[in-house]
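Lab notebook, bench 4. We co-purified these components, and the gel suggests they stay together. Before we commit to crystallization screens, I want a quick structural picture of the whole thing.
Request: model the full complex, all chains together.
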Amino acid sequence: MPVTQPHAPVPLLEGLATTRTIRRYTDEPIPDDDLAAILWHATRAPSGSNRQPVRYLVLRDGAAALQARALLGNSFRTSWAAKRAADGYVPDAATDDTVADDTVADTPKARMAATMQHFVDHLESVPAIVLVCLQRYRGPNPYEGASVYPAAQNLLLAARAMGYGGALTMWHQMVEPQLRELLAVPDEVALSACITLGRPAGSHGPVRRRPLHDVVFQDRWGDSPTWAVDPPGTEHTHWK
Amino acid sequence: MPVTQPHAPVPLLEGLATTRTIRRYTDEPIPDDDLAAILWHATRAPSGSNRQPVRYLVLRDGAAALQARALLGNSFRTSWAAKRAADGYVPDAATDDTVADDTVADTPKARMAATMQHFVDHLESVPAIVLVCLQRYRGPNPYEGASVYPAAQNLLLAARAMGYGGALTMWHQMVEPQLRELLAVPDEVALSACITLGRPAGSHGPVRRRPLHDVVFQDRWGDSPTWAVDPPGTEHTHWK
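Here is the predicted assembly.
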């Protein structure tokens, strides 16, 4: 594809294995062409009946974007402070399961809390924010995500391919009414995800997950087949 | 990653751009190691709080799998026949929007109808079927898909990387009660998607989508920025 790739191309399997949530960004802006390429690859994802109901509402440095960032920043900070307090999520007494994505188990808990705090404290200066929206053609239902979250994942993978990183969060939901009014989002449109994007600051560990035999069954719920084993050499990616 | 790759590695961006729904498969089975690698890469997707609520219930050639395939085959054929009739979906009077994924607009409509018919007629012999399941920790909601469909997309992309292809469908829903009983699926688990997998038979056209300026907005719903243009050389992928 005729898009900017600052490094050697990342192989597809390697990209799938190494795309993790990125919450610390450099100040470097995302050029128009790169952002267009990231979003174009997001649109390649499948959707039910190929209806293509996903829309991407991008916030950068326009006047409305700055207002939206202020709303989101306050919301993210309030959400994180509440979670941190409610879950005892402090450096010396951290628990899992307290934040909305997958670096939780990827770093020592104190560092994780610091990363979260940094993330919410810098939301106003994240290079780009993309609200991934679903133009509904019927009422809300638990399976509608089949037509929107594959695109969100493609977006994150495309960002990774081009040297960027992102975080998919749902913390926009606390200010959703204000966001809708500010950005003129129609009632039938769902704000399905809020993705932050930028050039990663610092280095990042591997994605950590449960071993395959815990999550793959064959023929009957709970029956893990003997072949459901992690590929050789990936033991370091085990979660917990 | 130490997995089978029959061809040169597919670059990540190219993989995102060229992974399309595949509904015709050769008879070639999917070896255990390949299936494990595909599923392992699916598990690398993010989930809310890194809860990792996705489970993969695989149907191949076991006794329960054969019963499940019979249920699914009948369901898919009934669903397709009804849609085909209701929507006038015959070679000379086809309409869009009649099937549950993205080859609809990718082929001449007569060929598409033939592909759908072939797909539902051969469900019993698809090399593998994966029910992608969500272990819920709260009631069903429209945003729960954020923790399951990114994994489904990773699964399809990993299959592509390894020379396989698949189709994500929701046509299992018509026989869901019977499937749940047969496969002992607990009540709190959602059957979020049914993915068929196999080695693609024949060649396949490009993924076709709306142009970027139709789906990308900046600062305000409906306002497409000047930079939201498809990458040069991709005009042939425009939908309609």
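Confidence is low (pLDDT under 50) at residues 91-107 of chain B. Worth comparing against the SEC data before the next meeting. Chain B has two domains: 12-208, 210-240.
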